[in-house]
Amino acid sequence: MQTKREDLSKVKVKLTVDVPETELKPHIEKVYKNLAKNLKIAGFRPGKAPQFIVEKEVGQDKFYAEVMDAVLPEAYYNAIIKENLITVSRPEIKVTKFAPTGGLTFEAEVEILPDFTMPDYKKIKVSRVAAKVTDKEMKDSIQELRERYAEFKEVKRAAKKDDRTEINFEGTKGGVPVEGTKAEKYPITIGAGMFIPGFEENLVGMKKGEEKTFDVTFPKDYHEKRLQGEKVTFKVKIASISEKVLPEVTDDFAKKFGIFKNVIELEAGVKKNMEEAKEMEEKRRLEEEIMKKISDMVKIELPKALIHQEVHKMWHDAEANLAQSGITMDRYMEMTKKTREELEHEMEGDASKRVKYGLILSKIAELEKIKATDKEIQAEKDTILASVGEDRKAEVKKQLADHETEHQIENGIISKKTIDKLFEYCVK
Description:
This protein is of the alpha+beta class. The protein has helices spanning about 20-35, 50-60, 60-80, 135-150, 250-255, 265-295, 305-325, 330-335, 340-365, 375-385, 390-400, 405-425, and strands spanning about 1-5, 10-20, 90-100, 105-110, 150-155, 165-175, 175-190, 210-215, 230-245. The strands form two sheets. Strands 5, 6, 7, 8 and 9 form a five-stranded antiparallel beta sheet that branches. Helix 1 crosses helix 2 (about 50-60), helix 2 (about 50-60) packs across helix 3 (about 60-80) and helix 9 (about 340-365) packs across helix 12 (about 405-425). The longest helix is centred in the middle third of the chain and has 35 residues, at about 265-295.
């Protein structure tokens, strides 16, 4: 087999591969035998019909299509091994010559990992900012805990901002009820902004049992097209009003969390958690600063296939994140008035940055001879397994045994160790 390489760009090559008759013949023979043993041809025992009879029986197109299916992957694989290529996309293969007695010639265009020169990243320096927690931040954090554990107590006064109400309402247009605008004992926290703009404000000052009629114009980008920009008259009756009661910061309040005995321990625990969060945030900032400095000094032509793969991953990550809020991607596209193509196009910038950072980290790991040990990989698997419930352990254990999953875990460990090494060199 002969191979000729042509560089179409720094990340794309074209291989012209010649497979001689001598290497083609064993594949033809194998296809012939596999087809012959399953054919019933008058006058011949199974598997004994001559090749030309078998070709005629199944049709030459089908016969030689199977030959191609057998020979092309093997010949292509041998060609990339011979040329020492690391490919990142599926090849585009075009057969330019084929004759059973004359051999096969095909062209394969494929994207490859780019080769590039690394700058002296050890000379890059970035400054760490101390993770300090201010008194105001502490106070705000304690206030958030109070808000989280707030209780609502029914009151007889008129409704005001931050009250939780239950309302009965119905919307009409020209005296005709509007579908989907009627409910009984519907919960609304006044001022939370979870209802149609202008609706919650009309509840302020109303008392339990009181009725009120007012108009509200739906937003032009409302998710239901039939209501976009429409003015609807609502008749509302207050069923109940409850005010928010914040708990006092006492030792009993601290004990609610199960790990603190008193207010002093609570405040110390909150401060520690905030400091750890700031430390993580600072580490992410330093990592981004280091990677950006290196990236700015590196010129790489990025393979389109890697960018497309990263966009695909980002899309599925976005789907998972939206699902946690009970929103589907179709619903999100409807809300943003954007197509999948438009959203994916918007992701390409971040995807390109991620791909470039990934290539740089891989190159540094190679230069620093950083690897993931079997012990480290197993420890990460154990951590993942320990984080899931008993009902999912068997399923996750099976996933962790998958070769591709293990490869992802290995890459993750290498990336983390490489970042740690960069911190040793670059962080002052």
